[in-house]
Batch of 2 targets.
Target 1
Amino acid sequence: MELPRRARGDELLKPGEMTSLRQRLRSLAPQHDLVTVIACAFDHRTRMLPFLYADLKMAPAGVRAIGSAMVDSGFHKTRIVLQQWNASFRPSQMALDGRMPDLFMVSSMSLHSAQCDALIRDACRLDPARRPLIIVGGPRIIYEPWRAFHADPADPWGADVAVTGEEYVLLNLLEVLLSVRARDEPLRSAFARARDSGALDDVPGLVYALPDQHGVPVELVDTGVQRLLGDLDELPHPVLGYQLLEPPSTLATLGPEALTGRAVRHNTRLASLVLTLGCQFRCPYCPIPAYNQRQFRGKSGERIADEIGRLYTEYGIAHVFGADDNFFAKQERALEIAEVLARQAAAGSRAHCKVHWATEATIHDTLRIQDHLPLLRSAGLQALWLGVEDMTGTLIKKGQTADRTLEAFALMRRNGIYPMPMMMHYDEQPLVTLRGGGGLLNQMGRLRGAGALYTQVLMLSPATGSKLYEGTYTSGMAFDSVDGVPVEPALGSGMHVIASRHPRPWLKQLNLMVGYAWFFNLPRLLWALVRSKSRIPRSDVCPWPPPGPDGRPARIPLKRRVRQKIRAHLYDAGFQAFGIWAVAKTLPSTLAWAWHLLRGGIVRSTAAPTSPIPMRSATGGAASHALPGTPLAEAPVSVAVPVVEPQPAPAD
Ligand code: B12
């Protein structure tokens, strides 16, 4: 099921609403010496092709955005802990600024559910009198907020509140809590009071539990779908979040200081930045358009230029990945951004000459914008991750055909932009075809031949919040367990076959790996050393240093020119070498899964997972984030909650 849309015309916050909320919080903050820890859940079992390197070397934007919002609002005592770098971190042992935090937040993708739960569980081990308020959010929670709550009286644990939205929702919640919080009152107690008074019900984008007298949730209240921030220039600056990163360690506790200066770049070589959000396509396996309530949002070129500039000058980060759903979805906006970035580079800004960026787009939109590819390259665009999915358009039609795909590849390469295809493998797709070119290997071979340096092929898997999600379960396509092994969320990256109607699903699993091995292998590596696919126009030139005031090109020492040429030539072989290593690293897990599939014993699902705890909206109707089949909490249930005496308002 897709996320419901708010009433037409009410999808977005009013212009300026975010900015004024930030200002209001800044004036509240000095009265509340809040200490916050934000953890990013990461399950190291999911480390495999094609996400290796980016999974560890890119500090995720979600937790950074939440950290930036806290600092920007005046809550400077905030630390971000990435389980990617701090696998042993235990919230039950955390202390920051010499004390237990007031606020513990967790961000998670669905894939990292096991670690997300483990973090919450561990935080719940703390003595209730000391325990911080626990808030969860991120892609997992946006679609399945109920996962954060557990109603087992024998093993009660869970978050206090799930945020199904973005920064604004969190800040809105904080404002409500701080406006009722007495000086030095535990934030959890202020939360309980706000919840019981109904004050949270006016904050769209929350799901909170109403507990019984033992603290076990009896129902979940859903305050509805968030209003989205339309003008992303109103967001806090993302650079703020980089000041908060916990240094990598093997300890369960936190270190005295966050990472600073160049140590930031050393650990996070790639930066993900939100540039635009939204996509006009309606692919049934993708939750993104519904999440965005069919809106297109973005930052201005000036703002993006500033973000890139500060990232480079403050941390030296020179590789940026746009967290776009489809960067070219709105052509005018993409061009406005490109024009500003290209202008900065032409004006001799070192940062904008040095920084390369990449993002996601579709073949259809790349062809539409083809006349402007030179401008995009001048703006620093180095590579485009293209949602090709299936060149023949059999799986999904997004305006791509084999010819159009190859045309887009050729155009991009001619203009100095590397095409990086993202593919999908599905039940009906054969490994090889003699005619028609629809086979996986046929397509991989053609894409490589057309100049793809890297690729991703994922098996079509159930994605929460997509149109196909429930049907995948109710039709029995999704597996509950295979050969006695339960299908855990950690298997949901698309690299394991966990949903298929194919009579021999193990073949699909092998196909996937054969596909990668066809793309990354030793003969191709050796050939890449001779005929490199990365030597494309503009790949061996750097706009830095810029031309002199007379317009004459700057003199670049011969040594540097040679180095640039060699680097451009070896880039292709480098990707091949990396791919071969990554295939080898991925094989043990994927082959073991193929073995389980071969042994059989596949237990198929009959229904999509739903909340076992009754859910309702704040006004008593159906909850926006409940899947069909979720028990409905009919009318507000009267619950026995510990009475907390109203506290005096904080003194100025
Ligand atoms: C960049 C990216 C990656 C990078 C991540 C690198 C990194 N370390 O950051 C790479 C390429 C490695 C990657 C891999 C995968 N990805 Co990815 N990826 C993205 C992408 C395009 C951008 C992520 C991003 O930076 N967003 C910008 C930030 C600001 O948004 P955000 O994380 O959602 O955070 C906001 C809110 O969620 C909320 N929030 C987040 N955390 C918290 C915490 C609290 C307490 C609160 C209150 C709020 C909150 O506020 C934030 C600010 O607005 C998104 C799509 C998208 N546009 O978001 C998919 C996305 C995150 N990926 C997704 C998936 C599924 C995957 C893969 C499993 C592959 C696949 N099958 O598609 C793998 C997993 C690999 C692994 N082992 O982890 C899904 C996640 C869906 C889900 N339900 O979990 C997304 C959402 C795409 C989709 N299909 O919808 N991905």
Target 2
Amino acid sequence: MNKASLSNAGHTSRPVVIRRKAKLISAVLFSAALIGSLVTASAPGVAADSDETIAVSLATMLRASRAVISKNQKHINDANIGDKGLSTAVVVAKAKENYKKATGTDVDSIDPASLHGKLIKAQLAAIAKVMDNAQGTINKKGVSLKGFLPAVFARLVAEGFTANVSGQATLKLTAPKSYVRNRSNRPDAWENNVIESMFKSADHPKNKHVAEAANVKGKKAFRVILPEYYGKSCLSCHGGPKGERDITGGKKEGGTLGELGGAISVAIFK
Ligand code: HEC
């Protein structure tokens, strides 16, 4: 479905053990399983998506939905308008549209019974809940700065998703340690290592994500982390001069255009 799906990094091989006593039965069963798997593999769209594909898909949906908030930031901050027309249904529909533009895949075509389908559904439910809860804030007349920012939206969606799928997967917006504003976004040791030793390295290709089997708080997982860079629109808050207050009251990071500013981190537990 996208470039990452071409990689096999998420697949694990399942060794087949044949005991001597049950050799014949096992051989028959093995043949049947083999034929079954060949049939399955040859049917288009049936082979399960790899963990890497699923993780990149979840990060893509996070970006697709956050883009709706970014695009409407001025509108959200307009004190003269009450109802902003950014209902849950509107935001979810626009997020799906952005996702399709980015991947070429209609998110509703993902098999709802598959792990990919279940996790995407849980993410869409998290997006819906964040937007349900935000209506009162964003539709308030007479207030310009409402604190409903793309990064806040993304954190709330990531937290909601992680709660919805408890124990199956986690989604997180993080940043280089020196740039983290919200302590709940701090990178863990694995994320910090990728950020500092790979993403910040001059030889790391821009936008390239890193995927690896690695633990999360001692639990076995397949992890994927995608870099995010400061664009022009970010620098009014994250740019210079360092330490000066931005419009939200936070301290500016002193970041520069194109610099690594954050990362989206996904874990799928094994
Ligand atoms: C209006 C000011 C503002 C703008 C513009 C802005 N941010 Fe932020 N950003 C914030 C605030 C405030 C937080 C803390 C959010 C929270 O509480 O979770 C934050 C958090 C983040 C985080 C999460 C890590 C952390 O520090 O907690 C990342 C990553 C990030 N911003 C990247 C960006 C990028 C990339 C852009 C541009 C596309 C951008 N921001 C634009 C204010 C801003």
